[in-house]
Amino acid sequence: MPERSNATPLSILVAEDERVMSDVIRFNLLRAGYAVSVARNGEDAWEQLREKSCQLLLTDFQMPRMTGVELCRKLRSEFPEWPLPVVLLSARGLELNAAALQSELGFSAILFKPFSPRELVHVVADSLAKSICSSASRVVGE
Amino acid sequence: MNAASRRPSIVRRLISHHLMFGLISVVSLAVGLIGLQSYWFRDARQRHLVERISEVRSLLIADHISHGGLGTQALINLVATEDQVAFAAAVARDGVITAHSKPNRIGQKVEFDLAALDQDLLIERRFLDGNSAVAREFWITLRAGDHDFGAIQVGLAPDSELAWLHGIADWLPYTVMMPVGILLVGGFVLKQITRTNAQIENQLCAVSDCQSLADLQVNPLPEADPAALGWNRLVERVRGHCVPQDLQTNLLQSLQSRHEHRFETILNVLPEGVALTDQDGKVTYANRAFQVLLKPFHDGGELKGKLLRSCLPANAQLPVNAADVARPIAFEVQPHGSMSDGVLRFGRLPLLTDGNAAVVQHIWTVRDVTQQKLAEEMRNEFICMATHELRTPLANIKAYAETLTDNDFSDIEQQKHFLNVINAEATRLSRFVEELLNVSKMEAGSLSLALQSVDLERLLTEVADKVRPQMIQKNIAFEMSLPPKLPRLDLDKDKFAAALVNLLGNAAKYTPNDGRVALKVAAAGKELQISVEDTGIGISAEELPKLFTKFFRSADERVQDIPGSGLGLAFTQEVARLHGGKLIVHSELNKGSQFILMLPIT
Question: How many helices (H) does chain A have, and how many strands (E)?
Fold first, then answer.
């Protein structure tokens, strides 16, 4: 079970406007042992992000008032020193230039809908592991 | 063909032939006349001589009778004075010359037998004389009745060699000089008559000599007759066609010429703007559409003569390679910043003059592509939306299904809930696919009805059941009021139901939580009215007319937040129309909307 050293579960912020989708994502992440908070739109997500209480952001692309990409862009520009892993969910498929987005905004992964929840959990774990490792190595390096 | 080898002009040849043949004719005529004349003359003279001789004979006979021949010599001399007479003699019966014009011959004897002479006949005697020339003599007797006084001998002079020349000399003025004079006058008149032809021929020779028709230097002929006038016009026309002109001058000429006025007319009815600019970028021609389209962007007035760049919209940006004047370029401008306020598409083509690549003029075109762009945008939005609307329910189905298989559910209710979600999403997906199919049919104009007798009440109840979950989810109060007896109608059950679901679904979608939706059915005479009212976000007056167009979605933020294809109302209206009815809407922004579907009852 992925945890922080002091045994509090890792917290994931899910930004998804469709209730049906956010429910199943939440279910799977909870089952996997993470703490989950849900935001219904980009603005709501931003408010929660600023509290800096999550270790990973899972965001849908298509959201009212602010897309997932815009949210990430805002995050990177406002908190450049915070290497929060961001996973993007998109129904866009091939129209999205995945490689460009990953390099430009530092998405750790992009998942295309329809997706497998199994895979989602795997990707989340992976991203978290990488981010913990890199922050650990920073600590060691100092 | 150079001048040296050139034959004399046809006119000159004509005149010289006229003179030559005329002259020949005159000369031969003259010769003939002279010949004829001398022959006739000789004959006349000879006749005269014979008459004279007869006269003298009578006188001689009378003289012999009365005077015994004293006057003989005198009379003989008289005869000898006649033309053609070489000598005259009176010869006695015995052949001795008694009188002679040459006195030394008197007394000689002639070698002629007078007895051979017939009494009254004048005979001509020809013989070879001592010089072997032909000599001619007339002999006539001097007998009268019983008297025989001998005979007269008249020797004729040989024809003089030059006798005929005298004849000519006499007649020269008439036989030769006058005809020649007349011929010359004729030649002169001929020259005058053919003068125009000669001039035309000269100009034709000039054409054959010159290298290029454009360099032709000829003066117009004096227009004394229609041929000269016609020729001048021809030359002018040919010259006009051969002068090398640049394409623009030609274009402008054809635009301005009276005969090609229709090109200007054609250009002016085009909806596309067309203009020409010179090498400095100044407008040399602009058709009506061009003037109109660019009117808002400059200070008014004619575009002609103005720098085109300064007449373009302020935010127009030419592409980077526009500096290369030989390249065709195209670019779009949104003069007012947004696409819906207008998009103009400009094009520029180089118009090269032949050979001289440095001097480049341009053809500019401009077209209002706003409608196209908006249609494109709507289509793109639709495709984007369609992809999303297809993938989302699929994603949900997959996510829930996989979660079910991968996990143990202690709570059976939760399991059921997941399965219900899958079911609902599948329905959502199938409804959307149905909508897509209907759209493609509507686009193709092939939407058709499969009519069957339908119990309206049952249909309405089914429809209400379908949409009720949506209402419940948003806590919307849903009322239905139906009249006691609803007729059976011939309807396409599926499509009609879909249309009603669309109206009710919209009402639910666009009404915020705790709102109210009412379904009212009323039969008013020949018409059935099905009304769906809501207390939702309403529709603005500007958007109301566009509401039923395919792919239309309101620009209102709240509507943008709600997923929708923009096809539902178009479909519903089409269904109403196909059933012989119509769909109307009343709405007030922020208050609510009412959609009324009217059907005829037969």
Answer: 5, 5
CA distances from A58 to A3, A7, B23, B249 (A): 18, 22, 125, 68
DSSP classification of residue A106:
-
Q: Give the residue among B158, B157, B168, B156 at the shortest CA–CA distance from B37.
A: B168
Burial class (CB in 10 A: 0-12, 13-18, 19+), B286: buried
Q: What is the pLDDT of residues A64-116, one digit of tens each?
A: 778 888 888 888 888 888 888 899 998 876 666 777 777 788 888 888 889 99
A contacts of B408 (beta carbons < 8 Å):
none
Q: For residue B141, what are its two tokens?
A: 């007797």
The answer to whether B550 and B442 are in contact (CB under 8 A) is yes
- CB B364, CB B346: distance < 8 Å: yes
Strands B85-91 and A107-112, bridge-based pairing:
unpaired
- State whether B388 and A118 contact (CB < 8 Å): no
Q: Give me the count of residues in chain A.
A: 142
A115 touches B at CB < 8 Å: yes
- Planar angle of CA A30, A33, A35, nearest 5 degrees: 60
Alpha helical stretches, state H, B243-368 = 247-256, 261-269, 288-294
For the stretch B1-18, pLDDT in tens is: 444 456 677 888 888 888
B426: contact with A, CB 8 A cutoff: no
Of A113, A91, A20, A98, the closest CA to residue B384 belongs to A91
Residue B444 to residue B438: CA distance in whole angstroms: 10
Interface contact A62, partner B, CB < 8 A: yes
Q: How far apart are CA B417 and CA B402, in angstroms?
A: 14
Q: Is B86 exposed, middle or buried (0-12, 13-18, 19+ CB in 10 A)?
A: middle
Question: What are the tens digits of pLDDT across the range B90-108?
Answer: 988 888 888 888 888 888 8
In contact, B559 and B587? CB cutoff 8 Å: no
Contacts of B530 (CB under 8 A, 6+ apart): B460, B500, B519, B520, B521, B596, B597, B598, B599
DSSP H or E segment with residue B332: strand B329-333
Q: Do A116 and B402 touch (CB under 8 A)?
A: yes
- Which of B381, B394, B403, B561 to mutate against chain A (most A CBs within 10 Å)? B403
The DSSP output letter for A5 is T
State the ipTM, two decimals.
0.89
B chain contacts of residue A24, beta-carbon cutoff 8 Å: 396, 399-400, 403, 418, 421
Question: Are residues B464 and B519 in contact, defined by beta-carbon separation less than 8 angstroms?
Answer: yes
- B369 within 8 A of B345, measured Cβ to Cβ: yes
B 544-583: CB under 8 A from A: 560-561
* Distance, CA of B16 to CA of B275 (rounded, Å): 63
Cis amide linkage into residue B179, ω under 30° from 0? no
Q: pTM of the predicted model, to two decimals?
A: 0.51
Which secondary structure element, helix H or strand E, spans residue B192, and what is its range? helix B178-193
Tokens of B160: 């003089």
Burial of residue B556 (CB within 10 Å: 0-12, 13-18, 19+) is: middle
For every residue of B1-45, DSSP letters joined together read --GGGPPPPHHHHHHHHHHHHHHHHHHHHHHHHHHHHHHHHHHHH
Q: Which residues of B touch A62 (CB under 8 A)?
A: 388
